[in-house]
Write a structure and sequence with these properties.
Blueprint lengths: L9 H5 L1 H20 L5 H8 L3 H4 L1 H24 L1 H19 L5 H29 L2 H32 L4 H4 L1 H15 L13 H24 L4 H23 L13 H31 L4 H8 L1 H20 L2 H20 L6 H28 L6 H35 L11 H36 L1
Length: 478
């Protein structure tokens, strides 16, 4: 009885694809809400009568809360039950989404957004672990590939979906659209999600969880506020110092406690560590594209926002189609080769972006957008499969939390580095400080874009080399 698993239960196996649907819907919505709000910020700023820098906290607080809580909810999933945590998270996410749509002032919106983020963190931290437990090994890559598809679709589709909603409806519908979809997913989950059977009941490392939250909050508050007021200000330097000190104390504590919030011993597994690192690097690179491509298409090329949104949707559409196929193939041939092929394609796409200019035919640029979607689709599913298959079943929640954390950190750091590199390079070529697109000098933007994508290419090449080293070293170990 102790060794019973979901894969042995015929009733659960009968409903496993419906379980995947419920999990994927919340995965899509929680990742979509990290990127969809950006396009609505100017409208929110006018409607709520607040400056743009205050409106940007609607995005920032969501990302900070998620990053601060992913590990603790991953651990709670292992100790109290992943499905239980997922169900509570889905209710909080729906409630937060409902509250976010009301124009009741910035404070109310930020509180609602924090509630939504808590729910999102609970579902993000447990989704991969649930699917890894439910699906047999022979189908795991395909199932994790579907989750990877919805992560990609949610992460990248925000500007396009948000633009379509704003063209016809009040900005509140950006959040309210989650409510009916979430209720349907919740009802499916209530009917077919089983009771947890892998529960350790271990005590929670509260000191570690608190320290990790301090690290995340101080680090990203420093990043977001620093972009606004400058990184040399005493407040920003102080926040960075707090983050570093808390990190040192956190690592020392986690190495001493018997049941840490972050199981550092997982990183002794090279397959796990390399896959987490590469996922982080690729999300950093992807968000270079997310930041820069709208400037290129709308400002430099003069495309209407809705048409630029359609062009950018090439990325997630290709990835959504490819990821489940790559997951199925990885179930048959193993994931390592596919992760390497995917990273090579992503690297080639960065070269294409780097060489683009004002005269580049649009179909050529869209070809490279599709290529990065193809590369991500081939890379993400097998990479998730490696991460989740490299840990014992009692640590699936923690592994899922770390995997989601790598994604969210990659998103935040990618946006921060991309904007910093782009505007610094533009400032270098312009001969003065630049903090926005210069309408009279598109050539300065193109020069800055080239530098930014050189950095992005270097990041992709690091991931490719590391993964290639793992792939070509594998036969020597066997």
């Amino acid at each position: 009885m102790k060794n019973k698993t979901f894969a042995d239960d015929p009733q659960i196996q009968k409903h496993r694809w419906w379980i995947l649907v419920a999990v994927c819907l919340f995965t899509f919505m929680s990742t979509l809400d990290a990127s969809i709000v950006n396009i609505a910020l100017p409208v929110m700023s006018r409607d709520l009568h607040i400056p743009m820098n205050q409106a940007e906290w609607v995005v920032s607080i969501y990302l900070i809360v998620i990053c601060a809580l992913l590990l603790v909810f991953g651990k709670l999933g292992d100790t109290r039950g992943k499905i239980r945590i997922f169900k509570v998270g889905s209710v909080l996410f729906i409630l937060g989404s409902l509250l976010c749509g009301f124009s009741a002032g910035l404070t109310f919106l930020l509180i609602a957004r924090a509630i939504q983020a808590v729910g999102a963190a609970m579902t993000m931290a447990t989704n991969n672990g649930i699917i890894t437990e439910v699906f047999p090994f022979s189908e795991r890559g395909r199932a994790l590939g579907m989750i990877g598809s919805f992560v990609a679709l949610g992460s990248i589709a925000g500007p396009g979906v948000g633009g379509l909603i704003l063209a016809h409806l009040h900005w509140g519908y950006i959040f309210w659209i989650n409510v009916p979809v979430g209720v349907v997913a919740w009802f499916i989950g209530q009917r077919i999600l089983p009771r947890d059977i892998t529960v350790t009941h271990a005590p929670i490392d509260r000191a570690g969880a608190s320290l990790f939250a301090i690290i995340m909050v101080s680090l990203f508050a420093a990043v977001f506020i620093g972009q606004e007021i400058g990184f040399g200000q005493p407040l920003i330097l102080g926040l960075f110092v707090v983050a570093v000190v808390a990190l040192v104390v956190f690592v020392r504590l986690e190495l001493r406690v018997s049941d840490p919030i972050l199981a550092l011993q997982l990183f002794k597994n090279k397959r796990f560590s390399i896959s987490i690192l590469c996922a982080f690097l690729i999300f950093v690179a992807n968000f270079f594209f997310n930041v820069i491509a709208p400037f290129y298409l709308e400002n430099a090329r003069g495309m209407a926002a809705n048409y630029a949104g359609y062009a950018l949707m090439t990325f997630p559409i290709v990835q959504v189609v490819v990821a489940p196929i790559a997951g199925t193939v990885s179930d048959k041939i193993g994931p390592e080769l596919l992760t390497f092929i995917g990273l090579v394609l992503i690297s080639i796409s960065q070269v294409g972006y780097m060489l683009a200019n004002l005269g580049t035919p649009l179909w050529v640029f869209m070809f490279f957008i599709g290529l990065v979607g193809l590369g991500n689709g081939i890379f993400m599913s097998p990479n998730n499969s490696i991460v989740m298959s490299s840990v014992p079943v009692q640590n699936l929640g923690v592994a899922g939390g770390i995997n989601a954390l790598a994604r969210e950190l990659g998103m935040i750091i990618g946006i921060s580095i991309a904007t910093t590199v782009l505007f610094s390079a533009m400032g270098h070529y312009a001969g003065h400080r630049v903090t926005a697109y210069l309408p009279a000098h598109p050539e300065i933007f193109i020069a800055g874009m080239r530098v930014a994508f050189m950095v992005s290419l270097a990041i992709c090449l690091v991931a490719t080399v590391i993964t290639g080293w793992r792939l070509f070293r594998r036969p020597a170990r066997g």
